[in-house]
Amino acid sequence: QTVLQGIILLPLRAICIAFILLLAWLSASIATFCQPGRGYLPLKGWRRRMIQTALSSLTRTAYFVMGFHVKVKGKVASLREAPIFVAAPHSSFFDAIVCALTGMPSIVSRAENLSTPVFGTILSSLQPVAVSRQDPDSRKNTVAEITRRALSRGQWPQVI
């Protein structure tokens, strides 16, 4: 009986996750379409709210479909309280759970990730701080950009 459930549930879950991923890509594409100051200016208004609500909800739903039930204890620090939010060890796809639970903050990511099909569009909608591994000044530039965003008095989302 367990094998039969797996044979039925696996394709069903895969189809649901693919559909959720398609919706996330569509939401990210709409929110960033004709975006002024692409990457250099923070998203504002409906674009920012759309990313925060749609992507957060879709990510939570995807994890639920995969069988993860996350329970939050306590209160997430607001942008004013903590402009920089640290999550470690960045070693798995569980980082996306933290992103979804904290309202889809900006993240620090490899620049190469932005060119990945589908995921690159979703990632770029989060307005990441892109780290280039080929640039020798990348570490210094990344620290400067995180500092600039943290001191922006709430114009940029939290950085994780």
UniProtKB/TrEMBL annotation:
Any single GO CC term annotated in Swiss-Prot or TrEMBL for this entry:
endoplasmic reticulum
Name the family the entry cites: Belongs to the 1-acyl-sn-glycerol-3-phosphate acyltransferase family.
Principal location: membrane
Q: What is this protein called?
A: PCAT2 acyltransferase
Transmembrane segments annotated in the record for this chain: 12-34
Q: Keywords for this entry?
A: Acyltransferase, Lipid metabolism, Membrane, Transferase, Transmembrane, Transmembrane helix
Q: Which top-level group of life is the source organism from?
A: Eukaryota
Q: Kindly give the InterPro entries that the UniProt entry links to this protein.
A: Plipid/glycerol_acylTrfase
- Specify one Pfam family: Acyltransferase
Molecular function terms from GO:
1-acylglycerophosphocholine O-acyltransferase activity; lysophosphatidic acid acyltransferase activity
* Gene Ontology biological process terms from the UniProt entry: lipid metabolic process
- Where in or outside the cell is it found? Membrane
Kindly give the PANTHER family that the UniProt entry links to this protein.
Answer: LYSOPHOSPHATIDYLCHOLINE ACYLTRANSFERASE 2, PHOSPHOLIPID ACYLTRANSFERASE
Which lineage is the organism of this entry classified under, starting from the top rank?
Eukaryota, Metazoa, Chordata, Craniata, Vertebrata
Phospholipid/glycerol acyltransferase domain location is 69-156
Is Transmembrane helix included in the keywords of this UniProt record? Answer: yes
